[in-house]
Design a protein that fits this description.
Helix content is 84%, strand content 0%. With 57 residues, it is mostly helical. It has one domain. Helix 1 packs antiparallel against helix 2. The relative contact order is 0.19. The chain is built from two helices and no strands.
Length: 57
């Protein structure tokens, strides 16, 4: 898999996590622990994307 393809894949996963977080906030009882974990995963993806973009030049 090329770096560009990996960046796209990670970007898609990042957007999916963002959508999941937004849905969670739309619920009557927000699960704060779940939201915290989703945000942590989203941040890890963003860091990996940034790293790959730097390598890709």
């Amino acid at each position: 898999m090329t770096i560009e393809a990996r960046i796209r894949e990670l970007g898609n996963r990042h957007r999916q996590l963002d959508e999941t977080i937004q849905r969670e906030f739309g619920r009557p009882a927000v699960d704060e622990l779940q939201v915290r974990e989703l945000k942590r995963r989203k941040l890890r993806l963003k860091e990996e994307i940034t790293s790959l973009e730097a390598r890709a030049g």
